Amino acid sequence: MKRIYILLGLAAALAAGQYLETTIEFSPGTEPGTPVAMVWNSTDNRIYVADEYGRNLGVIDGATNDKLAPIAAANRVVALVYNPDQNKVYAPSSVSDTLAIIDGATGAVTFITAGGSMTDVCYNPANNRVYAMAYGGSTVEVIDGAADTVMAHIPVGYTPQHIVANPTNNKVYVSDWNDQNLMVIDCSTDSVTVTMDFEENCEWLCYNPQEKKVYCALRMNNQVKVIGGANDSVLATVSVSGRPYQMAWNPRDNRVYCTAVNGDYVAVIDGAGDTVVAAIDVGDGPCAVVIDTAANKAWVANFSGNSVTVIDCATLAVDTTIAVGRGPVALAYNPAGGRIYTANKNDTSVSVLREDDSSAVKETYGDDLRTTSAAVTIVRGVLKIGDRGRKTGDRAEMLDAAGRKVMDLAPGANNVSRLAPGVYFVHLGLSAVSRQPSIRSS
Hints:
This protein is mainly β. It has two domains: about 20-360, Methylamine Dehydrogenase, Chain H, CATH 2.130.10; about 365-440, no CATH class. Helices cover about 0% and strands about 50% of the residues. The chain contains one helix and 40 strands. It has a four-stranded antiparallel beta sheet with strand order 1-39-36-37, with no helix packed on it. The model is unreliable at about 1-20, about 355-380, about 390 and about 430-440 (pLDDT under 50).
């Protein structure tokens, strides 16, 4: 049975991908030309986009997808963090000692001087402080969230890579690439209290608040170290082949989703048992993952595949793969709008994806798509169903985007003007049908 896609009230043809709502293009020079990091402001429902090679932050309205006025911040920002207690966004420069602090309500920017070029940053809600990893100075800079002042410069390793907060135990963890260790900062004293030597390059970090565990990816060694947040000891070593990379914890199932950037899959680690319970094939070069807690799905950015794969966390199966811009490198989740944003590093754009596909233009994959014509017929109010080759007893029906039948279709003219604009499907019992009509209601 062929499935034909019907679009009501939409001028676009079926070129848009499943779950793809829109693509926001930026103008290099005045807006982010190389989007590499994003953060969602939960107070004002805005998304901030960092530019790896410029100084202007892009700002997106989370309700309307409109571009707002860009913000002149620090130069070459590659990491962002949001402080919900103070409604501030922190944008550290990766090439200087300047850190920009943006007031979420007014857009005003405060610049402070830190200890060197900064490549990662995290917020600790336990003490309302921001910890910026100063790669250039081999320190972690501690910023008071209320006063916007640097409180301390904490010496760490030679090449710090990433940083994550453990607010339950009031600690911050810093991975180091060349020194091959993980440092633990006690945030009550803002000093390093524990250094764990893994004899391998330490990189991405993830925190599981339910189990009070920290996960450290040893990319070159194909391992993930599991550290107990209370006593800072290694609880387990999990094998993840294919170069484990960025990770995200899902509170819905207490699992950690770990991208394997060279293996083109996602390893699913059980948060309680510290074992891999599934290996899910995704696109080429998975490098970022974010959890959509409302829909219980994991969204994976495939950098080399120019796509995003959606994993159903209930079934641990791929739901769909969506074509986005070139080089998707970072993701942000907006629970208020049910949207996921993809920073397309090589395409000066951000793709906006929806967790509810009923509001987006849909697309199919596989044999049906390859054998179906791309021709589009625009019909206003009436859909004509041909009867050539139709067998006695064959039925045709129209379904809405949720799969519910909205009307039966007969050979000849069918009045569809009463249907609300949206995405509809036609199921035909005709093997010879090869067109994809698009209908616009009048």
